[in-house]
Design a protein that fits this description.
Layout: E1 13-16, H1 20-32, E2 36-42, H2 49-53, E3 56-61, H3 72-82, E4 86-88, H4 98-106, E5 110-111, H5 116-122, H6 125-133, H7 150-160, E6 164-168, E7 178-180, H8 186-201, E8 206-210, E9 216-224, E10 230-242, E11 245-251, H9 258-273, E12 279-287, E13 293-299, H10 306-313, H11 317-325, E14 342-349, E15 351-352, E16 358-359, E17 366-368, E18 375-379, E19 394-402, H12 405-418, E20 420-422, H13 428-436, H14 438-442, H15 449-453, H16 456-490, H17 496-503
Parallel strand pairs: 1-2, 1-4, 2-3, 4-5
Antiparallel strand pairs: 6-7, 6-8, 9-10, 9-12, 10-11, 11-14, 12-13, 14-19, 15-16, 17-20, 18-19
Helix pairs in contact: 4-5, 12-13
Length: 504
């Protein structure tokens, strides 16, 4: 089947190849644009909110994602059965799968995302670095190609200087990544990294780079259209992480100067330009203690943390994705974009922070979301629903917005206190710990925040403090009540004159 000319395309029915909160979030923007929506669902999601919200829903298989959400053929077949002319993959699952992107194009469908070629290049850290180097993007010192020979790798590591980082060329999430402090430990750690990379990604290629000891994780949102226009929508700070995965994000960063922001934004646009990028993407950087930044990777999809960018720019990124996929040119340029206020996001995971953030699966016995000015909740659950074991344990994204960072943080603390979830452990308490911690409040933190400041006793201590305060308040209220009763008993009865006057 021939691939249609994108400039002639208009999307009338959109299939969302995802689940949960991101599926709902995409559907809401699509409906505002007058576009019909199609949900797909596995056995585990038969009664999910996104299935009920969509105009149509189609079953695609058993609960395990490798039998449902990760099967591209089932997604494309669902489009044919429902008449959907476009697919939005959200994030995760097939969102960065170049082979799936090619399948979609060959089926004559529109993928709301970049080209298969752009995905393929940016999906491998080494080819991504090679593309970025064409525009002289700053790189962390290290190797620019995969290293398989241990002796050669060790020699290069000595040149770069320890500590060094061994990283898998494919994939992410901390898999195939090893910090090596000395030359004596290098061979063993490289073997472990190669083994992990092979197991996780089917590709054992690794490379090395200097380990930045106090890194901050800063990423730049970009948008590119089919007409060569590319803009950036400023940065997000994503340094509060556990297991190399983000938990708290904010926009803008508390440490970037206007000059650094401009340089970093230009680099992000150049990275996107190196692969003729179309759609929404994110260019990630490491920022060191000297505020020097280095290219890390590019994510060729919508990010989990995109709401904070939407709040400070007023741009609906999903709507822009859909317009771009329909062949429309960006309706604004770089000069039109400004930062307004500050936004903070907490990923509300079904995890136990007191048990190394391990997933805590169960039933949402109570589920009540916070409300009020400047509070946004992107979720896909309701009270009584179970958190399935088959997928990522994120329940919701809690986002707050304020005129400045202080207001956004205070609003987040208030929203966390209002968020009522029982039946499972969540990261809400951890989020409050972060918001109240001096390092976060002052902006003096990096990706080691959890390791430096948080342990199982942190929340326990906070809970005990709150319990003590509650007890003291209760005692004070009780004492006040007793005093009032005592005072009432000693007050003389009103005179007959007053009683009679009342009767008149």
């Amino acid at each position: 089947m021939s691939i249609p000319d994108k400039e002639q395309l208009k999307i009338s029915k959109l299939l969302i190849a995802n689940r949960g909160e991101i599926a709902l979030r995409i559907m809401r923007s699509a409906k505002e644009m007058g576009i019909q929506t199609v949900a797909v669902f596995s056995e585990a999601d038969r009664n999910s909110l996104h299935v009920r919200y969509a105009d149509e829903a189609i079953f695609i298989g058993p609960a395990p994602s490798n039998q449902s959400y990760l099967v591209g053929e089932k997604i494309i077949q669902a489009c044919k059965e429902t008449g959907a002319d476009a697919i939005h993959p959200g994030y995760g699952f097939l969102s960065e799968n170049a082979s799936f992107a090619q399948q979609v194009a060959e089926a004559g469908l529109i993928l709301v995302g970049p080209s298969a070629k752009a995905m393929e290049i940016m999906g491998n850290k080494l080819s991504a670095k090679a593309a970025a180097l064409k525009y002289n993007i700053p790189m962390v010192p290290g190797t620019e190609e995969a290293i398989k020979d241990v002796s050669e790798a060790k020699a290069r590591a000595v040149e770069v200087g320890f500590p060094i980082l061994i990283k898998a060329a494919a994939g992410g999430g901390g898999k195939g990544m090893r910090i090596v402090e000395s030359v004596d430990a290098f061979e063993e750690q490289m073997q472990v990294a190669v083994s992990e990379a092979t197991s996780a990604f089917g590709d054992g290629a690794v490379f090395i780079e200097r380990y930045v000891t106090s890194p901050r994780h800063i990423e730049i949102q970009v948008l590119g259209d089919e007409h060569g226009n590319i803009v950036h929508l400023f940065e997000r700070e994503c340094s509060v992480q556990r297991r190399h995965q983000k938990v708290v994000e904010e926009a803008p960063s508390s440490v970037l100067t206007a000059e650094i922001r401009e340089r970093m934004g230009k680099c992000a646009v150049d990275v996107a330009r190196s692969v003729n990028y179309t759609g929404a993407g994110t260019v990630e950087f490491i920022l060191d203690e000297n505020l020097d930044f280095f290219f890390l990777e590019m994510n060729t999809r919508l990010q989990v943390e995109h709401p904070v960018t939407e709040l400070i720019t007023g741009i609906d990124l999903v709507k822009e994705q859909i317009k771009i996929a329909s062949g429309e040119a960006l309706s604004f340029n770089q000069e039109d974009l400004t930062i307004n206020g500050h936004a903070v996001e907490l990923r509300v995971y079904a995890e136990d922070p007191n048990n190394n953030f391990l997933p805590d699966i169960g039933t949402l016995q109570m589920y009540k979301t916070p409300k009020g000015n400047g509070v946004r909740v992107d979720d896909g659950f309701e009270q009584g629903m179970e958190i399935p074991i088959y997928y990522d344990p994120m329940i919701a994204k809690l986002i707050t917005f304020g005129k400045d960072r202080e207001e956004a943080i205070q609003r987040m603390i208030r929203a966390i206190d209002e968020y009522d979830i029982t039946g499972i452990e969540t990261t809400l308490g951890f989020g409050k710990f972060v918001m109240q911690h001096e390092a976060f409040r002052t902006g003096d933190f990096d990706t080691h925040f959890v390791g430096k400041y948080f342990n199982a006793e942190s929340l326990k201590s906070a809970d005990e403090t709150e319990a003590l305060i509650a007890a003291l308040v209760a005692v004070r209220l009780f004492d006040n009540k007793k005093e009032a009763e005592k005072l009432h008993s000693t007050v003389a009865e009103p005179s007959n004159w007053r009683k009679n006057r009342i009767k008149l």
